[in-house]
TrEMBL record:
Name used for this protein in its record: Tryptophan 2,3-dioxygenase
Enzyme Commission designation: 1.13.11.11
Keyword set includes Transport: no
Pfam families: Trp_dioxygenase
Organism of provenance: Trebonia kvetii
Subunit structure: Homotetramer.
Keyword Nuclease in record: no
Binding site for heme: 209
Enzyme class, UniProt record, top EC level: oxidoreductase
Cofactors named for this entry: heme
Superkingdom classification of source: Bacteria
Pathway recorded for this protein: Amino-acid degradation; L-tryptophan degradation via kynurenine pathway; L-kynurenine from L-tryptophan: step 1/2
Family: Belongs to the tryptophan 2,3-dioxygenase family.
UniProtKB keywords: Dioxygenase, Heme, Iron, Metal-binding, Oxidoreductase, Tryptophan catabolism
Taxonomic path: Bacteria, Bacillati, Actinomycetota, Actinomycetes, Streptosporangiales
Length: 250
């Protein structure tokens, strides 16, 4: 076993296949491939995080949540590299992207679903078996509530047993419970704060994504005919765990 064979570098390094002679297209390809690798790792970590939460393993759950937040910081930092590309440099190969668009990232949809998004169309779900499976199981916040219930915080049975297919709009009773958790300032509060770090990391990535798109293509239609930055702006500050933000106003 060697470094190259273990990492399958021949396969990995043959995956970058720019369609033009533009110098900057390779950067564009690598950045987006690396995004997908990090999305894969985040999905891997969130699955473990849910297992550890539901097993009541506070210490290891915290470690996993902190890792996810650090990965998100790294993903956001990659925007700095992509923003070294000028609008003219991007325009040199943009036509070759055809109908492809970042909106087609299946793994990012999967991540959104793990975080609790449920407003996918039936067509999107029916075309993505992995997404359908994620939507059918508990999202991350539901696992947090089970963790809190196991730690002695009385979460209503109706909340614990709710249909995972349904969106979670937030709940005043849960917010009151979270206020008590924070008032105690124990390990459970640390776990909740780790969730806020994850939520903030996703929101930060969305913001940087919007500004990167505006910086490179302005308000023009996005690749693949998407609405570009106009749509991306509508996703800003959409919290995955609204109760953890609302409790700060109490």
């Amino acid at each position: 076993m060697t470094y190259g064979t273990y990492l399958r570098l021949d396969d990995l390094l043959s995956c970058q296949r720019p369609l033009t002679e533009s110098h900057d297209e390779l950067l564009f390809v690598i950045i987006h491939q690396v995004y997908e690798l990090w999305f894969k790792q985040i999905l891997h970590e969130t699955e473990l995080l849910q297992e550890r939460l539901e097993a009541g393993d506070s210490a290891r759950a915290l470690g996993t949540a902190h890792r996810i937040a650090k990965i998100l910081k790294t993903v956001v930092g990659q925007m700095d590299i992509l923003e070294t590309m000028t609008p003219r440099q991007f325009a040199a190969f943009r036509p070759e992207l055809g109908s492809s668009s970042g909106f087609q990232s299946a793994q990012f949809r999967h991540l959104e679903a793990v975080l609790g998004r449920r407003d996918f169309t039936n067509a999107v779900i029916s075309d993505d078996a992995a997404l359908a499976a994620i939507v059918a199981r508990r999202p991350l916040f539901a696992s947090l509530l089970r963790y809190l219930n196991g730690a002695g915080w009385q979460v209503p049975a109706a909340v614990l047993d709710r249909d995972p297919h349904e969106s979670w709009p937030g709940d005043k009773q849960i917010q009151d419970l979270l206020a008590d958790v924070y008032a105690e300032a124990g390990t459970a509060a640390e776990v909740c704060e780790a969730f806020v770090d994850i939520d903030e990391g996703v929101q930060e990535w969305r913001y940087r994504h919007v500004k990167m798109v505006e910086r490179i293509i302005g308000v023009k239609t996005g690749t693949g005919g998407s609405a570009g930055s106009a749509y991306l702006r509508t996703t800003l500050f959409r919290s995955a765990f609204p109760d953890l933000w609302e409790v700060r106003s109490q």
